[in-house]
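agent> Task received from the user: take the single chain below, predict its 3D structure, and emit structure tokens. No templates, no multimer pairing.
agent> Plan: (1) validate residues, (2) run structure prediction, (3) serialize to tokens, (4) report one or two observations.
agent> Step 1 OK, no nonstandard residues flagged.
tool_call: predict_structure(input=
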Amino acid sequence: MKILSVPKEDLKQIISIFNREVGRFVFFVFVLFFDSIYFSKHVSDSQIWINILMLAGFFKMYFRSIPRVKELMIYAVILGFVGEYLFSRGLSMYTYRLENVPLYVPIGHAALYGRIFMFSKASIVRKYNKAIEQLFAIAIAVFAIIYLVFFTDVFGFVMTFCVFLLLLKRPKDRLFFYSMYILVAILEIGGTAFGCWKWPSIGFEVFEFLPSNNPPSGISLFYFLLDLGCFFIYTQRHKLAWFRLKNIRKNQS
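)
tool_result: status=success, residues=253
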């Protein structure tokens, strides 16, 4: 594995950046307990406080970010709301505990998007891009296979396969989406374990040939659509800068 050839000091720096930009977001998994079935039943319904906490975290991150990340985060919030209502309320792809769309979810999409973006663009991470990418790809493949074999998660395995397939011709995006896949998987496992939301036993509660685990492994596939949407809006608002960048990349190839 390429990661084994990374110098020890550089590896420590990569881990430190991962913990700073991504690892802190994992803390939110434990916060989800306060929106759990158990907590709402035995203590109180505190979803509103999680919404406030997520908003506070979002604005803290927003005001610390560079202009490009700020703009992308706004697009992610807007598309997050649209996507959540489409997939959850419209297509019954999954269902939240109160059968609503909690405010912390689309806000969380944007915060997660921004964290992963900053991690993948860090100079030391870009230096060892291929090594980290290979490590994450192996971890994802093993994770999806385990879910398929032990939980009959055909739906998740198909989505994971699609993630790899879509990234075949997008090598520059692989690390970003592999990182996204891993973080989304952690959040999904925590959220469904607490009962904050639930996935049906088959894909979209319609396709019987797609048995699904709760949660399925490859849900990050839909974050691919979120990224494409954010990227498209950004390039449309900055057409001249995007045109120059494409020319630079063309001349360098």
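agent> Step 4: summary for the user.
Residues 2-224 form one domain.
agent> Done.
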